[in-house]
Amino acid sequence: MLGALACALASSGLVFDSSLGPNFRFDFTGVRGPLNNLGGISLTEIRLYDAQGVLLPPEAIHKVENEGGGHFPQEVPASLVDGRLDTKWLDLEFITGETTASSLSITLVAGAPEPKSYDFVTAMVQIKRDPTVWSFSRLTPCNDWYPLASVEVLSPPLARRVPYATVTGGRFAIPELPLTDEELIACTP
Questions:
Q1: 48 φ, ψ (degrees, to nearest 5)
Q2: 161: exposed, middle or buried (C-beta count within 10 Å: 0-12, 13-18, 19+)?
Q3: d(CA 107, CA 16)
Q4: CB-facing half-sphere around the CA of 52: CA atoms within 13 A
Q5: CB within 8 A of 137, min separation 6: which ones?
Q6: 61: burial class by Cβ within 10 Å (0-12, 13-18, 19+)?
Q7: Span 40-45, average pLDDT
Q8: Buried b (16+ CB within 10 A) or exposed e, 116-133
Q9: What angle do CA 115, 117, 123 make, to 5 degrees?
Q10: Taking Cα atoms as reference points, which of 174, 153, 160, 169 lies closest to residue 31?
Q11: Backbone dihedral region for residue 89 (phi beyond 0: left; psi -120 to 50: alpha; all else: beta)
Q12: What residues contact 167, with CB distance under 8 A and at least 6 apart?
């Protein structure tokens, strides 16, 4: 079963590393807009929470990558998990011709608590850059991204530097990876 599933999943350049914590990916495909002369996609923070609702500290994050993204030196992906509201991430490559897409992968350190929910914090300016549509995936030991959720938020917060939870009624849950131990062992390198 896993072999067929693995063939259907999108691969990436990120390789599963059992010495680190889990890897998650956000694939953004929509923003508030309008799309004309957009100038990118942006957030101030991505916040990850453990099962008790405790915010994971910046030290729990090994790295954040925006494969194929373009940004200014002060608006890098690492700004998303620095715990500060005076920094932001901006991907200027969000619109390339007819394509609207941006991917962010987050790798936790070994031993970090397993995140069970997440939230976004709006960027300081440009409400048109607020993400509205994304999918959420987890990297399996087979080096494939397993899709866990697709999300659409029609109206992100208009206020700046505030969590999406203020308009969505709560944080976004992170579903469990629905693979059995046998399936995971079958593809472990």
A1: -110, 140
A2: middle
A3: 10
A4: 4
A5: 10, 24, 25, 27, 145, 146, 147, 148
A6: buried
A7: 95
A8: bbbbbbbbeebbbbbbbe
A9: 110
A10: 153
A11: beta
A12: 153, 155, 156, 157
- How much is the mean pLDDT over the chain? 85
Is residue 131 over pLDDT 80?
yes
pLDDT greater than 90 at residue 53: yes
* Structural contact between residues 122 and 44, judged by C-beta atoms closer than 8 angstroms: yes
pLDDT of residue 37: 63
Helices (H) and strands (E) in the chain, counts: 3, 12
Q: Tens digits of per-residue pLDDT, 137-181?
A: 998 888 889 999 999 998 999 999 999 999 999 999 999 887 766
Which tokens is 10 given? 């999108």
Classify burial at 140, counting beta carbons within 10 Å of its beta carbon; exposed 0-12, middle 13-18, buried 19 or more: buried
Token couple for 124:
């300081």
Q: What is the amino acid identity at position 32?
A: R
